[in-house]
Amino acid sequence: MNLEDIQQELSTALQLDLEQGVAWMNDEAAKLWQTEYPTLNEVIGKILDLDTEGLDLQEYKPIEY
């Protein structure tokens, strides 16, 4: 094993471990969001689940209050 191999192995190990940490933090943040803002979370979920196939968003008109 040469220095370049060791550097590559270190780089890969560091990246994988950091990605695992970020994934864990994302999961925890998602749980907290769902607990703190259940109604907003539900509405956002409904919007994200909408079928937008064939929908021309250029014609979208926001609701006027």
Order of helices and strands: HH
Question: Which term fits the overall shape?
Answer: elongated
Helix content: 55-70%
The main pleated sheet reads as: none
- Rounded to an integer in angstroms, the radius of gyration calculated over CA atoms is 21 Å
Uncertain spans, ≥5 residues at pLDDT below 50? none
What distance lies between the first and last C-alpha atoms, to the nearest angstrom? 68 Å
Quantity of strands, as a count: 0
Beta-strand residue fraction: under 5%
Structural class: mainly alpha
Number of helices: 2
Features:
single chain, 65 residues, mainly alpha, 2 helices, 69% helix, elongated
Give an overview of the whole structure.
With 65 residues, the protein is mostly helical. It is 69% helix and 0% strand. The protein has helices at 3-36, 38-48. Helix 1 (3-36) packs across helix 2 (38-48).
Task: Provide a compact summary of the structure.
With 65 residues, this protein is mainly α. The chain contains two helices and no strands. It has helices at residues 3-36, 38-48.
Please outline the helices and strands.
Layout: H1 3-36, H2 38-48
Helix pairs in contact: 1-2
